[in-house]
Amino acid sequence: MSNSSKKFTEEEKAAIALKAASGEAGKLQDLAEEHGISEEEIRNWMRETGVENVSDDDEDSVIIDVTDDYGRSVEYGATFDIPNYRRIVFWSAFGTGLVLLIVLSVFYVHSYTTNVVADQSAQGSEFYDIQQLQERDSEILNNYGVVDAEEGVYRIPIDQAISEIVNESN
Questions:
Q1: Are 132 and 138 a contacting pair, CB within 8 Å?
Q2: What is the reported pTM?
Q3: pLDDT at site 59
Q4: Which domain holds residue 57?
């Protein structure tokens, strides 16, 4: 560092200010004498560079350099947030579409299974009815019975009726 011309670069000023801030109370005076400048000038450099004097007397004071956004956020009580509307709209539409797809799928699966069960039930009942009708008709055709007692109409098994018709025609 050049102390003869008393013109210091910004880096030299910052280095001197940092040394002054990191030392004891007498360090400021020693640096001023060593570089041939006043203590006040070193204090000015410390203010310009943002370096604060760290000493045991000043433990409670803290200086924080903040940006405007940070300062507004602290005053507001929370960090300002700029919402990404495109992303919000996309995920809202995607979620809504997904829920609709699931609801429609459940509806169609329910409808399909209800129809299948109804068809199977109908087929089973038709088969049962047909089978019952065939059994009843078979019983009527193969057994003796009364059709109308007042008129004197009786029924005979079909095989016997065919045999009698054949015998009568011979």
A1: no
A2: 0.33
A3: 52
A4: 10-76
